[in-house]
Queue: 2 jobs
Job 1
Amino acid sequence: MAFSPTELKNEDLLYSYLDEYLDGELTPDVLAKIEPLLQTPEYSGLPGRFQALRGKLQLAMQSYYLKEDELSALNALVMPPSEKQKAEATSIEALSRGNINSFYRRGAVLLLIVVAIGASVWKFGRTKERKFRPLEYLGYEALAMEEDAQERLNLPSHDPVEVRQYLESYPGLEFKAQMLAGVPAGWQIDGATVIDYEVAKVAAVMYERGGAKAKESFFFFSFAGELSDLPASEPGNMRGLIFQTYASNELNLVAWQVAPGVVALLVGRRSAPELAEIALASRSAKD
Amino acid sequence: MATSANQPIDESLVNIYEEHFLRHADTVYRFAFALTLSLDGASQCVRETYKVIAANLAKYVDTAEGGANSILIEVCWRVFNEQKSKAFASGHSAVTKALQPLAISARAALVAIDVAGLDAVSAARVLQMSDKDLRVHLAHARRTLLNGGAQL
């Protein structure tokens, strides 16, 4: 027999449908039972309290993750280490050839870009505006900061308070620079910087975890604009967080409207859903 | 399919395993931790789960994309129940303290939905509960955490 939610006792109905209530996904009959309950003193504020608790639970659970050797052991269940070594040796060889080629290709592309920019400036003067392309610029920036954070971070710091003060007091920013309100356990702030592209300024905060051998980073960028300014992408909705995802060969990018007139972009090697979870947990912690 | 040293490895199945199943390993670990409240217990559970997955990859070819998370939680839940007699030493973390008062079914419902991201219908199916039982367990878990002042 099909289950009818109204079979549940009022409290079970209320507590078990809280996430659907927050996402606006309740059927009319369930909503009609829940809303009167939420008007009572006993349950007023319950959705907000649940949202905050769920954010904390998600953030706390993120400190539980498998170590590299455990992941390798899982990987080895389908590909014995000897086979994997053989496959990796082949792809490393191909990659080395590719890296050398792409080094010269990148150099040639950079040279072309410089020449093109020079030609544009010469032809059009400074009246023609460059367009800020956040995905392209910040994807590159993330890779560059991964390579050499110390060179690119104006404020290398593990102190979130210090980073917040730096961003809040940075002169000439036309938007309120953002940082994550909460970060999964195991991760720490590595520093911040403001990147000036002339056509736009971007606040960047770097997060990292792991020791020298297994260091992993992700980047939180914020800049003035609207999510709709970014290239079209399949929108995601994770428990009320509307976001757009993009991917390059190496990185995943998750963008969302973090505040009116401010777009946030999380960039990292984690999967897009994992980055979205980080964004969601931060939003819940802020709430 | 897990292979011996002499069997050829089907690369398409390896790709499915790596692209669709391995990426959820941390989620499975968190689910297993919620059940066992033990780091060792969770690791063992995850290993056994992935052994089952690796041994049956051909079965999941059509459902892996988009369904891997549910499949993993389902197998993990089954593996856990088969090993329930094993005792694991619990820790004293905030998560352990918050989840310990809950019955296993309540913990499973809570973490499957609020951490692993399954919807209620999928969670009921993979946890082999009726829709109603799932909702009752979920409500109990959320109510206990909220009213018990869980310090997370």
Note: The domain at 11-147 of chain B is CATH 1.20.140.160 (Butyryl-CoA Dehydrogenase, subunit A; domain 3).
Job 2
Amino acid sequence: MNDVVISLSGISRSFGEFYANRDIALDIRSGSIHAIVGENGAGKSTLTKIIYGLLAPSSGSLSIKGNAVRFTSPRQAIEAGIGMVHQHFMLIENLTVTENIMLGDEGGSFFAPLKTKEAARKIVSIAQAHGLDVDPDSLVSDLSVGEEQRVEILKLLYRDADILILDEPTAVLTPSETSRLFATLASLRDEGKTVILITHKLDEVLDVSDMVSVMSKGKVVATKPTAAVTKPDLARLMVGRSVLLRVENPPDRPGEVIVKASDLSFVDRKGRKRLTSLGFEIRAGEIYGIAGVEGNGQSELLSILWGMTEPGSRIDGSITVNGLSLNEMSTKEIAAMGISHIPENRLRHAVIKEFSVSDNIIFGRHRERSFSRFAGFNTKSVHDYTKKIIDRYDIRYDMQSNPPLSALSGGNQQKIVLGREIERPELKLLILAQPTRGVDIGAIEMIHKKIIEARDKNIAILLISSELDELISLSSRIGCIYKGSIRHEFSAAEILKGRSSEQDLEKEIGMFIT
Amino acid sequence: MRNTLLKLLTPLFAVVSALIVSALFIMATGRNPLDIYQKMFSMTFGSDYGTGQIVFRTTSLILTGLAVAIPFKVKLFNIGGEGQVLAGALAAATTGILLPSQTPPLVAISICTLTAMMAGSAVALFAGWLKVRFSVNEVISTIMLNFIVQAFVGYMLTWHLAVPSTVHTPEIIQSAQLPMFDSVIGIWNKSPANFSTLLALASCLGAWVMMFKTTAGYEMRAVGLQPEAAEYGGINPNKLILKAMATGGAMAGLASTNLVLGYKHFYEAGLTSGIGFTGIAVALLAFSNPLWIIASALLFGFLDYGGLTVNAYVPKDIFMVVQAITILMVLVLTKKSR
């Protein structure tokens, strides 16, 4: 059982001057779950791409099951028994589960009839063995995200893959789906298959893996049996210093009600009901968290709050900030009330990646009087302000070359957005959607600190996040959103108490969001 | 740094390779390409008159280039330069004819220029409105508007405006005519180069300042690069689409002053001769940068007039081939360097 199935030695991969992987030596044992953790940009995905044949290493050697290989395409990796579940699923929506699984492995000649029945039988038998049940005849477009992921895994098993690479598989799953996935992975391992799990969630590593490798700056800095490490150990190895995993959260002093949503309903352009009599209140100086699985009305709520509902949709009920209704307001008017919004999709909505750092630091606030002179900008005040934000939010980049924003790391980009939005003059309400998605641990620590700081300046904060531990450690109260309404609200006292037994609280929240 | 250098070299490389390819064409006609190029050069930049001709042509192309470049900043492809120039030309000529002949020059020129700009602007704005209101693709609407304007201008000329048994209108009043460089400062002997050139250069500078130094330009670039983010930033893309189209159309309208107020002093059928379309190429070669457009328009102005000068030896169409190859090379090279 314990023979090495994948062995990398001296693997390096450079892009120009930059080494994404440098001198990597790693042995992965057959029949184990091997986690690879690391911050964004540590080289995890480059490494998996090399194993999966999507990238050729610049130097070094790779051997699979004892044979030295040199993959030039994923096809060869697949033939060697390697399968990969990408973070973004590669399924065709309007084909059935069986058709998707057979795709690329149909057998027979071009005009031969498809043997779907036979394939469906095989799929069902694999599925039953590993708790991957999904109806082989349903269309992929009708499946939930969790089911889609099961189809992806089935696709690999159908092709007899015995080495499975999963890239951030839990990012889109609910807590119960996650534990279900882990049960599947454990059963696959017990059958002798090898699972490589790419993740940045340390709890998951500790929960499910047998071995763990930590990557940092393109190198594997440690490979250890999971049983021998703790969460702080891993965090320290990843970042290179001790990290506060849980932000210090002193008691809050909530003031008057700032946001009040009552009996809020929303029907989208196509007539589908997205929010149903949703109600909550946020006070000044408190953080109201909203927990929920994606697609339960969070985006619709955000679009109402930011004046971006599509034409043809309908809002019923009311949502007010400081007593003023937002229903008919434009984005510009809402922002002018002292409201900031950090959208979930940073690159698409919060920044212009071709713009410079300073152009981005004023983006959305570029009409403020202090930045303008005549019809243009006051270059000096914009420059000074940029410098202030860079210092205060510890934004790191090569200032000399004045690079476009896209040259900065995700964490630094997010700090720019955070700085810009928190420092909005006369800020009353801060709306945060997935504020730490795609951000490394070091930056998360700092972002959380800044959020608490903003709260203590008596700003009302709405936090929508899919990371339950983030919600629990920051929020004063948590509302659980399910099918467009707040199904349950956890009081401040319950949250406070729950922080000492986080796992239990997470489970409890999990029950209200599924 | 290396990227900017590469970007600067791309057009140069494109032009050189286009000249080499057309040398092959010239050889196929049985002429010595070096001979032809040498003749062409001496009759263009080599002569006073030739230089004036190039300046004249460049002026029109700068403005039709801007007509494409400005909307392109918000990712709109204005193919309607030709129609917008035509509309401007008709407007400038008509106003110039109708104004009382004792109108002071400054007033007459301003009024004619403004009506030309407004006419070009109105045509482009209509396409912009169709886009904003009904999401009609601007490529299609501007092309269609070309046909409509062409037909309308043709009708107006034939049935209402033309001097009997000619294809041109009467002359505009004296005071609406823009002075020639030749008659005022005595350069570019007898060539049609006139003071519109200064308007064109000022427009480039103005467009550059607007794009890169003003809040409006900042918002336009944001909309062009990432329209969804712009909306999150509280920018209304529709307003900017209308503004950009209106400004672009105004530039095309302004191009007609070079032809009508500066050169012919009347409108005649075929006066615009495709400068609206060449403007697309000019903007493309200059990556829609208002200042580079000057250089790009100069190149096209040179090829345009240069082709005419050697028409007796080789068909001038060869130089249209040069223009086409240059554009294709630029497109290929910029794609590859990405």
Note: The CA atoms of residues 52 and 188 of chain B lie 5 Å apart.
